[in-house]
Amino acid sequence: MIRLLVEVSRRQGAALVVVTHDANVARWCDRTVQVRDGRLAGAQAETDAGAETEAGAEAKAGYRR
Question: Rounded to whole angstroms, how far apart are CA atoms 35 and 29?
């Protein structure tokens, strides 16, 4: 389902906001923002995300390449 949502949002040039506790879902996003106790705790763009897990890299490779 996340693949479909990401694909549609990119085709339409629209933002997709996803709220999740699942790291595998978050890996599909170009940018993540962490919130703790109602406050911004951190943000990370895809370009500075560092090493990915193998599962996340495989999931992204299937869609992005």
Answer: 16
Long-range pairs for 39-46 at CB < 8 Å and ≥24 separation? none
Both tokens of 8, joined, read 């549609």
**Sequential pLDDT tens for the chain (65 residues):** 899 999 999 999 999 999 999 999 999 988 999 998 998 888 888 654 444 444 455 455 554 43
CB 6 within 8 A of CB 16: yes
CB atoms within 10 A of CB 26: 19
